[in-house]
Amino acid sequence: MARRRLLLLLKPFDMLPSRHFDESSHFRNPKLSQVIKYLDSRSLVHMEAINFCQNILRKKHVDWEAVYRFNLCRPIRDVDLVVTIGGDGTLLQASHFMDDSIPVLGVNSDPTQAEEVEDCNKEFDVTRSTGYLCAATVKNFEQIIDDILENHARPSEVSRMSITHNSKQLPTYALNDVLICHPSPATVSRFSFSKKKEGQSSSSMVHCRSSGLRVSTAAGSTAAMLSSGGFAMPILSRDLQYIVREPISPGAYNSAMHGTVKPEELMEIAWYCNEGLIYIDGSHIIHSVQHGDIIELSCKAPKLKIFLPSHLISSKTAGMTVVA
């Protein structure tokens, strides 16, 4: 059997800022010392997770290369599997360089520790990595990688979002969500939107003054969308969900401030501010828009093949299902 080729995409260690604190301040502020100890622990746990996964792979019939995620600058090609080691942010960044031909497995390198939360949560926030889309931790990594290499596990196909700007396709597909807003959070965003099906309007035009528009996929519906008043969607749904943020006097449009876009539809947004930004999956990928521009959002993007945590899917969807 041919050796499998893997790419390991790693979260950098400098994402955690403990090294930037003034050491002399430790003695003046005992709580700061506790925070720094916590941040150092996170860096150590992450480093140990990377070493653990690499040691496991050295025992397998695979060839692999490790790359820090901020060094990734071109499409991922010529590998059989991408393994991200970090959290959801690392998996999201990998997805921006992947088409629908290569599957990805996320390893949550630093999960939240229940005992730590119980002991320290009254002092400061000790939440670690959520890893919502990560199927593996160090506890089950070897079992999951064995299932994948032995073809006993199949990836799920998760919907992504296509974004066009003035009829030009943007190169990045959103796995989580898109936020369209004015660059200043204190400035009103003015835009109108409608839904279209087969080139014809399938909804009335809605005119908005607000703090922006957020649109999510099913995978992103439990993140900022849920926090802003949306609802969690089944992970394999192809619907998009949208919500107008802080609408000003919506009046007759009130019922249209939150809704869904079906797979056969697209959402067309006309932008009416002198400047605006499209944020794709957070703050790292930004695209500028201006007055009169047209943005179209739909689920007509290549799906992402991802090995999902078993609790997100039923046995019928064959996402991380063991094949008999």
Plain-language structure description:
The chain is globular and about 60 Å long. With about 325 residues, it is of the alpha+beta class. It has helices at about 25-30, 30-60, 90-95, 115-120, 140-150, 225, and strands at about 5-10, 60-70, 80-85, 105-110, 155-160, 160-165, 170, 175-180, 190-195, 200, 205-210, 215, 240-245, 260, 265-270, 275-280, 285-290, 295-300, 305. The strands form 3 sheets. Strands 6, 7, 9, 10, 11, 15 and 18 form a 7-stranded antiparallel sheet that branches. A 6-stranded mixed sheet has the order 2-1-3-4-19-5, sandwiched between helices. It is built from 6 helices and 19 strands.
Total helix count? 6
Give Rg in angstroms. Answer: 22 Å
Mean pLDDT over the full residue set: 89
Give helix and strand order, one letter per element, not per position: EHHEEHEHHEEEEEEEEHEEEEEEE
Condensed summary:
This protein is an alpha+beta fold and 324 residues long. The protein has helices at 25-28, 30-58, 88-95, 114-120, 141-149, 224-227; strands spanning 4-10, 62-68, 81-86, 104-108, 156-158, 162-165, 168-169, 177-181, 189-197, 200-201, 206-210, 213-216, 240-244, 258-261, 265-271, 276-280, 285-289, 294-298, 304-307.
Can you give keywords for this protein?
324 residues; alpha+beta; seven-stranded antiparallel sheet; 6 helices; 19% helix; disordered C terminus
Write the layout of secondary structure elements.
Blueprint: E1 4-10, H1 25-28, H2 30-58, E2 62-68, E3 81-86, H3 88-95, E4 104-108, H4 114-120, H5 141-149, E5 156-158, E6 162-165, E7 168-169, E8 177-181, E9 189-197, E10 200-201, E11 206-210, E12 213-216, H6 224-227, E13 240-244, E14 258-261, E15 265-271, E16 276-280, E17 285-289, E18 294-298, E19 304-307
